[in-house]
Specification:
The complex is a heterodimer.
Chain A lengths: L7 H12 L5 H13 L1 H19 L7 H44 L6 H31 L8
Chain B lengths: L3 H9 L6 H20 L2 H17 L10 H23 L19 H4 L4 H12 L2 H12 L4 H8 L3 H25 L1
Helix pairs in contact in B: 2-3, 2-4, 3-4, 4-8, 6-9, 7-9, 8-9
Classes of the chains: A mainly alpha, B mainly alpha.
Amino acid sequence: MMSTKLTCKEVRINMMGLLDNEISEEQKAALLGHIESCPSCQKMYNDFRTLKKDTQEMKFKKLPEIYWDDYWTQVYNRMERGFSWILISIGVMILLVYGGYEVTRDFFLDPQKPLLLKIGVGAFTAGIIVLFVSVLREKLMIRKIDKYRSVER
Amino acid sequence: MKTDNEAITACRAGDKEMYRVLVERYKTRAYYAALMYTHNRDDALDLSQEAFYRAYKALDSFDNSRKFYTWFYRILKNICINFVTRKRTHNQVSADDENRPELVSSGLNPEEILERSEQSELLWQAINQLKEKDREIIILKEFQEMSYREIAEVLNIPQGSVMSRLYNARQRLLKEVEYLNDEY
């Protein structure tokens, strides 16, 4: 329920509801009553009305139909590919674990292989792993401090 | 025609094809929403499609008491903000550019976006001169045609604050239009 004595400030804020048709008939009548009797609010109301009309008349270029025809297919492809990536990731992880086990058994535990070679291969592998973890951590840190991450879904 | 909630329930049960109902229903709004951030047709198409894909992945977390599009819009907005920010960083914008409204990409090309009209172009420029907070609420109301309730949900603000936020934004837009009108 809107009070009968409205200040200009209240009227100007509630004017938005009048423009956007978001207020009750009773509220509309109270606002229009004030607007009719207050030249400064009347001017503002007319300015806002013109602005709204101009905004509504802005026409965006239509996208050629061919883009819309293909739209769903593009989304569907992403949905399917997303599932494929999960399968690929699982597969890669299994292969890496299995490969690691095989390499350890056949190479590092093989007494025939020279110690220097084992150290070389070990150092190279450890370097790659550390580098990978470091890059991964950096990426995750950047995500953490990204100020737009807090925009809720 | 299935309702949003019926389509979502079917998708959750594994019927991927039912997601098409939602995509077809909202693709135009999604595209134009993305276009307001990217100002580029191809990017807007790509980002809106990506948003549909991510929304599909997150469908289990969707609360059925809410509207699908307002929930989806937040995902889309998030993607667009990250995209524009990344683009700005990659372009290594100058110090002057940092004073520009936050989300305006460098390619302000109304001729690619709007049907030719002097008043439309002026208004487009004025909207893009606004601070992001003002620009966003104008877009949600005028171009996304959301109700106050939906705007409150998207912006996570009380419904009562929508009117005052809109009032301030429209007032600043009027000033900007007046300023641009004087300039030309």
